[in-house]
Amino acid sequence: ALELLTPPVSGNANARMKAHVRRGTAFCQLELYVEGLQDYEAALKIDPANTVVQNDAEKIRNIIQGTALKSHD
């Protein structure tokens, strides 16, 4: 899908950002956290002020570093 959004211009920036987030989410669901984080970081290059993406990227970093909070049942 990202290939269809080239060349990267301001007119397709939002669609490219969403595509990176969706692919990053899919990688994380497959427990491919490093790959997922790469897509989230690519999304942040497009929209650095997006706090939702910033927070999600931080959660992924914590998972990679093994410091993710575990829920208490």
UniProtKB/TrEMBL annotation:
Keyword GTP-binding in record: no
Claim: Phosphoprotein is one of the keywords in the record: no
Biological processes annotated in GO: determination of left/right symmetry; epithelial cilium movement involved in extracellular fluid movement; heart development; inner dynein arm assembly; outer dynein arm assembly
Gene Ontology CC entries for this record: extracellular region
Xref: InterPro entries: Dynein_assembly_factor_4, TPR-like_helical_dom_sf, TPR_rpt
TPR repeats: 17-50
Alphabetical UniProt keywords: TPR repeat
Lineage: superkingdom: Eukaryota
Gene Ontology molecular function terms on file: nuclear estrogen receptor binding
PANTHER family per UniProt: DYNEIN ASSEMBLY FACTOR 4, AXONEMAL, DYNEIN AXONEMAL ASSEMBLY FACTOR 4
Name of the protein: Putative dyslexia susceptibility 1 candidate protein isoform 1
Species assigned in the record: Cricetulus griseus
